Target: UDP-N-acetylglucosamine 2-epimerase (Non-hydrolysing)/UDP-GlcNAc3NAcA epimerase
Amino acid sequence: MKIMTIAGTRPQLVKIGAVSRILRESFNEILVNTGQHYDYKMAGVFFDELKIPKPDYDLGVGSDSHGRQTGRMMIALEEVVEKEKPSAILVYGDTNSTLAGAIVAAKLHIPIIHIEAGLRSYNKKMPEELNRILTDHISTLLFTPTENAGDNLKREGIEEGVHQVGDVMYDAVKFNIGLAEEKYKLDDFALEEKGYILGTIHRADNTDNPERLRAILEAFSEVKEIIYLPLHPRTKKMIENSGFQSIVEQSENIRIVEPISYLEMLFLEKNAKAIVTDSGGVQKEAYFAKVPCLTLRDQTEWVETIETGWNQLVNPLEENLSVKISNLTVGEPIENLYGDGQAAQKITSIIQKQFI
Ligand code: UD1
Model:
């Protein structure tokens, strides 16, 4: 059976790294890279490090406005899908690449397999929320990471084809953390154990709103710990466009670096005193690493991390952001909230039962 996987962003490559290896033991996988992320540091290094097979198709779509980016992906995808005629199309998560793949599949009457289904922030202003809702509603098999994700789907009337399998990102962490710890030491980054806070910012909500972006950078510059900040290209561009470089240049503790690889990220998460982020994946990785996390957003899809006290939400415009960053504390003792690290095996055997 031929399964076509469609993806194109950094977090999707991490998930492919965990799933493809297992999927290919049972299926003929055709990998299509939309090219939504195209810099080596945002994509290429993930292929290399996670040993992801070379894509069968590179669409090279790149950045654009949402409508144009998604539309250009759909035009290119339709041609590839019509040529390959896969029995199912597999998409991950909530990016524009996910939605483009799902719409093209649905229009050609090809069953959609959605990994990381059922997540909701209940904020329809986020492009990711629209991508998730639309994809879930046209999927045949929906693999959810948690019970809460299944409940979200039920509320929208989706019960058929839903399987709770755990989180493939936990599979990825379990497989890679040992490799990360073998490969790196803190000296490589001139950092000390628990002597720094790891930060990531890239959400449109934060980067495209100068008031929020300024508040975040000012708070970072006020804390006494080192803020180690691997910067997404979009954030870099927005800092330059908004004239905020001076905040960074005048600060003694903000250390901006280029985007880092997955193994570097896992290593630095594990050794950080705390993590401050607006990424979905990094909130969970903080929880897996047993490191407290502050999420610079008003809602999160990963509600379990909040309920157990490992993660807190904060609007960057709230007062005392820097105090909140410095005073993060650990949560309840860890139980396994995101499965057993065997999600890829479960997904593969359910696909086999469904289609073969
Ligand atoms: C996308 C996803 C987001 C995911 C994130 C992970 C959508 C709607 N959003 O956001 O859910 O969390 O990926 O990183 O799909 N850019 C580069 N080089 C690259 C990639 C991007 O310079 O390799 C810059 C471009 O200036 C571009 C901007 O980043 O305009 C935004 O890129 P885009 O892929 O549209 O969205 P992300 O912010 O990366």
Q: What stands out?
A: The longest helix spans residues 66-84. The chain has two domains: 2-167+339-355, 182-326. Residues 2-167+339-355 form a domain with the Rossmann fold fold (CATH 3.40.50.2000). The chain has 16 helices and 13 strands.
